[in-house]
Each structure stands twice: as C-alpha cells, then as structure tokens.
Specification:
The protein is of the alpha/beta class. It contains 6 helices and 9 strands, in the order E-E-E-H-E-E-E-E-H-E-H-E-H-H-H.
C-alpha cells in the first residue's frame, strides 16, 4: 500500500503532517479523540462518530486486525482517522483483513505518523473544533479552503440519515418481550443486549 503526503488541518489554524494511507481524499468533520487501548473496530464503525475525524491516542492501532464481528454498524462511520503507528500485519485468529486494507476499502482518509498526543491536547483544550483531513496532493491543495467553507455550512449538515435504517427489520426470535427501536444510528451491541432480554 503506497503512502501519500497528508495533513490534518484544524479550524484554529493548526496543522499536523504525516503520511496518508491508501485512499486519497478529503474528509471534513468535527475532530475528536478516542482513548481506548482496544476497540478500534467498534469505534470506527460506531454511528455516534458519523461525520467525525477520529484521532486514536493509543500509539499502535491495528494489532488484531478487523474481524467484522466487532462492527457496530456493518461499515465505517467516521469521516477520517488519525493514527500514530498502524499495524500492517495483525496477529489474531479472528482477523479477516488488516486495518490499513480495510480503511482503504471503506474509503476512509487516514493520517499516520502525526503527533497524536499534540492533536489530543489541542482538542482537549479547544473543545469542539472542525477539521479537514487531506490525503494526497489534490486534497492537500484544497483542504484549507474547503475547511473554511465547511465551517460556515456545518450547522446544516444532517448526519442521522447517513446512519439510520431505511427499512424496518427484525432481530432475534418472536419469543420473549418485544422491543421497538427507532434507529437513528443504533449500535449492534445495543441490539444484542435487547435481544438477550
């Protein structure tokens, strides 16, 4: 998988450089961070992160690959991701694909090698902040202009339709209590817990 120049631009003017993985593109969204040592598959597929650029604080992500069984939605929900160091060769018997290949297949712009501690400190101190994650020369050339346009229009972006179910579906058996869930981005883990009632 070839690397490209990449950077994360925050709306306050900060810029964090590194290498981009696989998919070349521009992601615009709210910059947030995730502090878990594990659970990256769950986080990347969590509908509550829809439209966000997720920075992982743990320094090595991807050690156990992607199994599919930990997915919270069935596909990636994040707009982009920032990782200090990524594992190209996972070690887990349930792994079906390595994280870099999965991110590329899901078309998620990914920045690797940036100072994730500095990004996390900036996000913690600043609070909610819009960002642009650019992978590749074309995306880098338009990132700052696109970010300023996005910030103006961000309050009108509707994220729920991108993660809500379009058709009704049933989960579990017909025995036991029946629960109706209005899906505005429900996690599979919640459905599994309800099914266990």
């Amino acid at each position: 998988m070839s690397a490209h120049r990449a950077a994360l631009f925050l709306a306050d003017g900060s810029r964090f450089d590194g290498e981009g993985l696989g998919f070349e593109g521009l992601a615009l969204g709210e910059a947030v961070f995730y502090t878990g040592m594990t659970g990256y598959e769950e986080a990347l597929t969590d509908p509550s992160y829809a439209g966000q650029i997720l920075t992982f604080t743990y320094p090595m992500i991807g050690n156990y690959g992607i199994s599919g069984s930990a997915s919270q939605y069935g596909r990636a929900c994040v707009a982009g991701t920032v990782i200090k160091q990524i594992a190209y060769h996972p070690s887990h018997h349930l792994s079906k694909i390595d994280l870099p290949s999965w991110l590329d297949a899901e078309r998620i712009p990914t920045l690797v090698g940036a100072d994730t501690r500095a990004i996390t400190i900036a996000l913690r101190e600043h609070g909610t902040i819009w960002a642009a994650l650019a992978v590749g020369e074309e995306a880098l050339a338009r990132a700052e202009r696109s970010l300023s346009e996005f910030v103006r229009d961000a309050s009108t972006e509707a994220l729920v339709p991108s993660v809500a179910t379009r058709e009704p579906f049933a989960v579990g058996t017909t025995q036991g209590p029946r629960v109706v869930v209005i899906d505005c981005g429900v996690k599979r883990a919640i459905l599994r817990q309800l099914e266990a009632l």
